[in-house]
């Protein structure tokens, strides 16, 4: 009989209907309700990408493929999937409670964000373990998975294929990831250095000798990590005919990609008269999902089979 282990997949969460906008925005603002104007701005951005974000559906697809890969390669472990969100129901705590109700006593948790951050990903694990402590449920962490060979392989292949599209032009490459508040960086969060090291590795693998790193999708309050993607775009556009954006800080198509990149960055490229290209997001790509599966397998679990 196979040992049953919980697989807790944690993600940021997104509104799935218009009525979710206010509670979602209130959650990301740590309980402070947004103004009507702020909600209207968010609503317009969703409308610009064709309605609400595809994030929820893609996250479910990634999680389902992940548990499928894991169970197909294990002779002794059966993973049972539970999905919890930081800012939308079902919340992380709901997923942990569901594990307990299903009789799960041990689980592995992974965040749909490949880089560890004290500000970002650590809070997911803290919330999960706080609820798990009620039940004596043991949760092991996949703290990061950006160094998995398949993670790097996906981005190298996707970038090379995109560069082939613009091979007849003088091209600038901008790697991007989500910005963080400066006060978090001053507290010692290593997220920027890890992202930059990953960008360097990918660039090296595809033979790039010149590229830029930029931060995107910053919040509207306080000081955030720079240089911002708009600033870098203006600099790079001075000497190229096309710009290829590589959003290595994200794992799927959602608002930050479909609006902040495909609408805002493209509009800026149009203004600067340079061609806009973006590397396709991993979404449910098999190689990319395998990166997560390998990271989960590396967590010590009795009798687990590895490839």
TrEMBL record:
Pathway: Porphyrin-containing compound metabolism; protoheme biosynthesis. The keyword Secreted does not apply. Its main location: cytoplasm. Pfam families: Ferrochelatase (PF00762). Fe-coproporphyrin III binds at residues 12, 29, 45-46, 53, 124. Fe(2+) binds at residues 178, 256. Its EC number is 4.99.1.9. One of its GO terms (molecular function) is ferrochelatase activity. It catalyses: Fe-coproporphyrin III + 2 H(+) = coproporphyrin III + Fe(2+). CDD domains: Ferrochelatase_C, Ferrochelatase_N. It is an enzyme of class 4 (lyase). Transmembrane segments: none annotated. HAMAP family: Ferrochelatase. This is Coproporphyrin III ferrochelatase. It comes from Veillonella criceti.
């Amino acid at each position: 009989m196979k040992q049953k282990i919980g697989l807790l997949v944690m993600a940021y969460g997104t509104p799935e209907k218009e009525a979710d906008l206010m509670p979602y925005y209130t959650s990301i603002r740590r309980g402070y309700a947004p103004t009507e104007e702020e909600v209207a701005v968010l609503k317009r951005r969703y409308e610009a990408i064709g309605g609400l974000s595809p994030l929820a559906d893609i996250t479910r697809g990634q999680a389902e493929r992940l548990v499928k890969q894991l169970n197909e390669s294990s002779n002794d472990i059966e993973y049972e999937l539970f999905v919890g969100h930081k800012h939308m129901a079902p919340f992380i705590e709901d997923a942990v409670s569901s594990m307990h109700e299903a009789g799960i006593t041990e689980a592995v948790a992974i965040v749909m964000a490949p880089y560890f951050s004290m500000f970002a990903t650590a809070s997911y694990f803290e919330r999960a373990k706080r609820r798990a402590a009620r039940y004596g449920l043991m949760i092991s962490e996949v703290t990061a998975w950006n160094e998995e060979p398949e993670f790097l392989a996906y981005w190298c292949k996707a970038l090379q294929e995109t560069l082939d599209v613009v091979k007849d032009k003088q091209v600038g490459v901008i790697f991007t990831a989500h910005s963080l508040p400066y006060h978090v960086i001053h507290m010692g969060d290593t997220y920027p250095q890890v992202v930059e090291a990953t960008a360097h590795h990918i660039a090296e693998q595809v033979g790039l000798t010149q590229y830029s790193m930029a931060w995107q999708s910053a919040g509207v309050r306080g000081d955030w990590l720079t240089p911002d993607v708009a600033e870098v775009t203006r600099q790079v556009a001075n000497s190229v005919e096309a710009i290829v954006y590589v959003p290595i800080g994200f794992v799927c198509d959602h608002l930050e990609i479909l609006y902040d990149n495909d609408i805002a960055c493209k509009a800026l490229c149009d203004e600067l008269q340079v061609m806009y290209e973006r590397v396709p997001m991993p979404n449910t790509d098999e190689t990319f999902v395998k990166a997560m599966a390998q990271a989960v397998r590396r967590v010590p679990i009795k009798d687990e089979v590895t490839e």
